[in-house]
Amino acid sequence: MTEHKCFVFSLADVEVREREYCIVKAGQLLPVEPKAFRVLLFLLRSPHRLIKKDELLDAVWSDCAVSDNSLTRSIALLRRLLGDDTREPRYIATVPTVGYRFLCDVQVVEDGFAGPNGASLRHPLNSDEENSSEFEPLQGTLGVEATPPTARWRKATGSQTTQLNAQSRHWYMVSWKR
Q1: CA atoms of 142 and 140, how far apart (whole Å)
Q2: CA-CA distance, 59 to 99, in Å (whole number)?
Q3: How far apart (Å, rounded) are the C-alpha atoms in residues 32 and 132?
Q4: Alpha-carbon distance 69 to 4, whole Å?
Q5: Of 14, 81, 16, nearest to 6 (Cα)?
Q6: What are the tens digits of pLDDT across the range 129-143?
Q7: 21-65 per-position pLDDT tens digit
Q8: What is the distance in angstroms between the CA of the first residue and the CA of the last residue of the chain?
Q9: Nearest CA-CA partner of 42 in 57, 20, 26
Q10: 32: which residues sit within 8 A by CB, 6+ positions away?
Q11: CA dihedral for 66, 57, 73, 141, sign (positive or negative)
């Protein structure tokens, strides 16, 4: 079995930690959806290069069929998290109808995995507490065997999927009657 090396990408005041599936901006831990995070990682691995939409869709959503809207939504989420502007982009530039380009220079170092330093990070939920040393680790960040939530979702058993489908049908019927 080959071991996948994880990296920490640094740019401006942003740090992207691949192993922990998290973004740290100005010392604050930002929660991000797994697919959007994978889009960001793909862009970070090829800074300044135009990446076509199809290439991104194949790399991130290879396990299912999705439209360009999924990619557009992920890019919008990343821009919001990074504080980027579509009119004057600092991080992600759109090449209309073609794809995206990551604009910043990126420094990459191999992750030695010491874990996030809880004393130096502010969690968004506790950001108004000064000098808080309390830190709640993200789910799935404690070891090398951690898997992103999407991988855990795919591992659902048949009975769990049936139960979820039944709950979805119930919600649809209840909301439809309103």
Answers
A1: 6
A2: 13
A3: 22
A4: 30
A5: 16
A6: 444 434 444 444 443
A7: 999 998 999 989 999 999 999 999 999 999 999 999 999 999 888
A8: 53
A9: 57
A10: 21, 22, 23, 40, 77, 78, 81
A11: positive
* Average pLDDT, rounded, for the chain: 75
CA distances from residue 84 to 19, 75, 79 in whole angstroms, order as listed = 24, 10, 5
Query: Under DSSP, is residue 83 helix (H, G, I), strand (E, B) or coil?
Result: coil
Residue type, 12: A
The answer for residues whose C-beta is within 8 angstroms of residue 102's C-beta and 6 or more apart is 43, 44, 46, 47, 48, 49, 91, 92, 93
User: CA–CA separation, 121 vs 133, rounded Å?
Assistant: 8
Distance CA 74, CA 77 (A): 5
**Identity of residue 61:** W
Side chain identity, residue 132: S
For strand 99-102 and strand 28-30, is the pairing parallel, antiparallel, or unpaired?
unpaired
For the question of whether the overall pTM of this predicted structure is more than 0.85, the answer is no
How far apart are the C-alpha atoms of 15 and 168, rounded to whole Å? 37
Beta pairing partners, 5: none
Report the C-alpha gap between 148 and 153 in whole angstroms.
9
Q: Let me know: does 156 contact 164? Beta carbons within 8 Å.
A: yes
CB 46 within 8 A of CB 102: yes
Other CB atoms within 10 A of residue 51 CB: 19
Q: How, if at all, do strands 7-11 and 92-95 pair? A: unpaired
